[in-house]
Write a structure and sequence with these properties.
single chain; mainly alpha; 75% helix; 0% strand; globular
């Protein structure tokens, strides 16, 4: 939210406050899960690719925010340096190619993602990713969500090409950041007319019934 406030708004009020909030949140995210690094990378990609955002490269706020985020993450770096970077080596080992057929691992990875999210949610998410990519940096809010969310999805899907299908929840933090794109698309469809609104309501009702049915079966 803080990154959206300062990067998309051409003249955000109290930019220092929002950058400090973003830095603290990113530092905590890095401590809780290494996926937090994708927030930093995504923000850099957004600033580098959107002309209106490149003005931040000439201001001190993002650099101070990056230092604060890394300072919060420093205990993890210190511990790893004292223990032979054990956690980094453990995570990196999962990307080592295996004897499993690469295409099989990729399909297993995609099937796992679709299964964890449910196909009726996963397919719209992928489609909205494509739409945001096709629209490019012109739509600041959509482009920022894509830059922040696509990293885990793309990286952990491509890792499966090494033969390790991975676990379906690895890309999940990225999908969480992409959910607003699906919500926005649903809201826009609802305003197009009664026919589109009825279709949307039927789709939502069918998704809810399918979810309850799966929960009942599992129980």
């Amino acid at each position: 939210l803080a990154l959206t406030r300062v990067l998309v708004d051409p003249d955000p009020p109290r930019p220092w406050r929002w950058w400090l909030v973003a830095s603290i949140a990113t530092g905590i995210a890095l401590l809780s899960k290494y996926h937090g690094a994708f927030l930093l990378v995504g923000a850099v990609v957004f600033v580098a690719t959107r002309r209106e955002a490149r003005r931040w490269l000439r201001r001190p706020e993002p650099y101070v925010a990056t230092v604060i985020a890394l300072a919060i993450f420093a205990p993890d770096l210190v511990w790893n340096a004292q223990h032979g970077f054990a956690s980094f080596r453990f995570r990196g080992a999962r990307a080592i190619p295996t004897h499993v057929h690469h295409l099989t691992a990729l399909l297993q990875n995609l099937a796992g993602q679709a299964g964890y999210l449910f196909p009726w949610i996963w397919v719209p998410l992928i489609y909205q990713m494509y739409r945001a990519l096709r629209g490019g940096p012109r739509d600041g809010a959509r482009w920022l969500l894509l830059c922040l969310g696509a990293g885990p999805v793309v990286v952990f899907t491509l890792v499966s090409l090494g033969g390790n299908p991975g676990l379906p929840h690895w890309p999940a933090p990225g999908y969480l950041l992409l959910l607003p794109l699906v919500g926005d698309a649903a809201a826009r469809r609802e305003t197009r007319g009664p026919h589109q609104r009825q279709q949307l309501h039927r789709w939502l009702a069918a998704a809810a019934v399918a979810f309850l049915a799966l929960v009942a079966i599992a129980a």
